[in-house]
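Hey, sorry to bother you again with one of my protein questions. A protein chain has come my way and I'm curious about its shape. It would help a lot if you went through both lines with me. I owe you a coffee for this, so here goes:
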Amino acid sequence: MAGEWRLGWLRLLGMAVLVGCTGEGGETGAPQSGACALAEDNTACPECSDGVTTCTFRATSETANSCGGCQARSALYATLCAAGEQATEAEILDELVCTVDET
């Protein structure tokens, strides 16, 4: 039950974050950050659960009950976007580490 609540909250946070991101046709004309682009592209996760996953990029990590790690990755991208992470999509994807909690 707590996992469902957290997942709902993370989805809401991700949506709120994406509203603040700019992209093609954005009001500021600034290019969209790699983190915000990834967050926008990874909003639809399957509704299954194969365990708790932690995804980390540099010093930032997110842990979520996930289906193939999707929810944890999506939450991490939203957190990075909200924090104003300036790494490119390629840098984020190259340095992204996701692990499944085996306990």
